[in-house]
Amino acid sequence: MANATVAQAVNRQTVAAALQAARTEAAEHRAWINAINRAALNLEACPWAFDGEVLRIASASNSARYTISVDGCECKAGQAGRPCWHRAAWRLLRKAAEMLPPARPVLTDAEMAAIVDELYG
Predict the structure, then answer these.
(1) Which residue, 4, 39, 105, 119, could crosslink 89 as a Cys pair with Cβ 3.0–4.6 Å?
(2) Cα–Cα distance, 75 to 70 (Å, whole number)
């Protein structure tokens, strides 16, 4: 799933929908709710890059940068197995990407010609 089109297509509307779903799913887990809420704020405030699989995001409190993937987060909380806002941000962006409609395939000239021939030939 890693490609530039995922990052370009994820927008405030898809992240907002993912945020609403995440808050509902984590309603009984206060630590995750706190991480999700902080992630929502920091996705607006901190520079980040997401390719559909890996999130690279600046820390909100110092000059550190974190890399988050399906394997987890490298921050202290993440390494200790606790919820962190970095991991919550990654999950929000993944969920937002999953909400996108599938990309339409790009046809080659030969494929387009074959379709035209089939329809009108």
Answers:
(1) 39
(2) 14
- pTM of model > 0.85: no
- The span from the CA of 70 to the CA of 91, in Å, is 9
Instruction: Tell me the one-letter amino acid at 106.
Output: V
- Across 1-121, the runs of DSSP E, i.e. the strands, are 48-50, 55-58, 65-69, 72-73
Tokens of 73: 């987060």
**Residue 61 DSSP symbol:** S
d(CA 89, CA 83): 11
Output DSSP code: residue 3. Answer: S
Tokens encoding 69: 């993937």
Distance between CA atoms of 73 and 51, rounded to whole angstroms?
16
Buried b (16+ CB within 10 A) or exposed e, 7-22: bebbeeebbeebbeeb
